[in-house]
Amino acid sequence: MWDTSKQTTPAKKYQCGFCCTLVSSNECYSNTEKNGYTCSWIYICPECGQPTYFYDHNKQIPGIKPGKSIGKLPAYVSNLYDEIRNCHSVNAYNAVALLSRTLLSSCCVELGADVGLKFIEYVEWLDEENYIPKNSKHWVDKLRSIGNKQAHELTATTVTESNQLIEFIQMLLTLIFEYAKDDENIQS
Length: 188
What we know:
The longest helix has 29 residues, at about 160-185. α4 crosses α5. With about 190 residues, the protein is α+β, with helices and mostly antiparallel strands. The mean pLDDT is about 85. Helix content is about 50%, strand content about 20%.
């Protein structure tokens, strides 16, 4: 049963899944089972005021968003990237796989590819236009194969695959948008 009054507990350190700030809070709401065992807690982030739910020995919802923020992204690409990171933080790994395909296609269109190509054509376009570093083509193929499994074979995406997708996407977005923009400023 949830106790609706705020309680004071020993301070708990955690990274807020909303604002990504490392915080410490000693105020929470708790849920106590019939046997008297406290099994879950809701802490309020002192930085942003959002609630974080803890259960089963420190499992956290929303979880910590993987990856890092990337500057200089076009608005639509930035929103998709944030959505992918948010999906992972709430264990929505299938959504990560599907949105990763959408993000890659959107990047291609943003960079000048035609709208409405097949996914494999976007992958080929990225390669032909030299947006994929020579030793990183296997990462694009990994994104394609994980995304294809989810889109066409309806198999579950694992947490490991989701992490791999986000790691690759972060690298690619950083190279294409953040570093490329810096390079343009250097050449000017």
